[in-house]
Every structure is written in C-alpha cells, then in structure tokens.
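$ fold --in a.seq
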Amino acid sequence: MVALLTAAVGAISLLVRWFTGSLEMERSARRRRREQAQLERDRQDDVAPSDQLPPGAVPQPRPARPPGRRRPAAHHPAGRRAPGAQAPLPVRPRRPLQLVAADLRRLTTELSMVPGGMPMARRRGLLAAFDDVLIEAAELLEVPHQLPAAPAATRELERMRLLAALEAAGLVVTD
C-alpha cells in the first residue's frame, strides 16, 4: 500500500513538472552545461603548447582534430545567427493578385465594423494583418510605400495614402 501511494505521488509530481515546463527547462539547462563543458574542453585543446614548454624547447605541431569533434557553429545562444553572419533571405511564393485583393477587401470590411468592446489585442492583430496585406499588394503592383518604416503616429495616414495609391493603380479595395 505504501509503495502504491509513493508511486502515485511520484507520478503526480512528474505530471505537474511536465505541465509547468520545469522538465523542459531542466533538460535545456543540462544541454547548456554540456555544451559549455565542450567549449571549455575545446578552449583547453586550443591553448598554445609554447606556454607549457621550458625555455629553449621547440614546440611540436599540434595533432589533428579527430573527425567526430567539430567546433560549434557561429550561432547566437537563443538560436539566432551571430552578428555578421549572413543568412539567406527567405523566398516567399507570391500569391495571385486576386487573392490579395480579396483579403484586402475582407480586412477593410472587418476593420470598418469593429465593435466598441473589442479587445485591443484583437484590433492590433487586425491592423497588423491589414498592414501585411497592404504591403503585399503594394509590392505586387510596384507601388512605392513607407508603411513598415512609418512611426506609429503617422501610420494611419500612410495606410490611407497607400490605399489611395493602390486604387489609383487599378486595385478594387472596396466592394
């Protein structure tokens, strides 16, 4: 009976740790410690032998690294590339102009009928999606725009200017 109770408490504590994410954090901490130890070993391997030789002795060439041990890639600890490393730009397939125009009309309608009690996060999400579709339409029709670089205070004016420029280019924005 005691063993069964102990096993149940152990299973419950394991489930709680799994749900709270502490198991994953412990695993990533162990991985970081292991990688840090590997870096320390690599640094010790890279110490110049002339520092350890008596004066007048000739340093011998260092043996080649075993093929299984490689230096870590130049990545940021959070998974991003290190500064100076050039990453290839992602190539996004272009959607047809008809789909972009339909999304633009749909988002215009949604934004015009935003209820008063709508959460601000949802409104900001709608505006972000609207901005993305506006930029996509502008790139497809080769209309110049400064929407991503516009400060928050003038972004609404830039949206209106870009909508007018897209309509002037022949895109039907409103139904």
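$ fold --in b.seq
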Amino acid sequence: MEIHNAMFDKPTQRTKKIQITTKGPSKKQAIVPLLDKHAKTIMTNTSSHVHLINNLLKNIKSSMYAKYIQPCPGGLSITTNNVPVPSNLTLIE
C-alpha cells in the first residue's frame, strides 16, 4: 500500500493504533513469597489473617488496609485499598 501511494503521490492514510492491555498484578497488592505448605496453612483461615494485618496497619496509623488474601504462584497476594509503601510492605510481610 505504501509503495502504491508513493508511486501515485496519494497521501497515506494512518491506521488506528490498537491498544493492547494485559492482565497483570495490580499495584494495589502486596505479594508475599511463601512455600506452598505455608501458603496453604494461611489460606485455611484468611479472614483472621486479614484482620491481623489490618490491626497492625491501624496501630501505625496507616490509611491502607487489606481487603483479602488469595494464593498466587510462589506465595500469597494481599489486595489492599491503596498502593503499599515500603514500611507497610515490611509490616505485612
């Protein structure tokens, strides 16, 4: 098409760029690497672990809180309401 347009001096038509998005980790989550056996132990009672994390964050007067915990390859993914700062990540881990 470009060769044809160049030969006959036709203006080239711009094609619309395709926007591609991929599903990946959200920035509003903390990924904690764990062995599978430890992750399975935590997954048996996630609500108490979320409650514990939220109490720890509340004690340091952080506005962040954990929403839920889910398993991910090589550990756990803790979804939060805000992007965690390094001090919060250390506390969560």
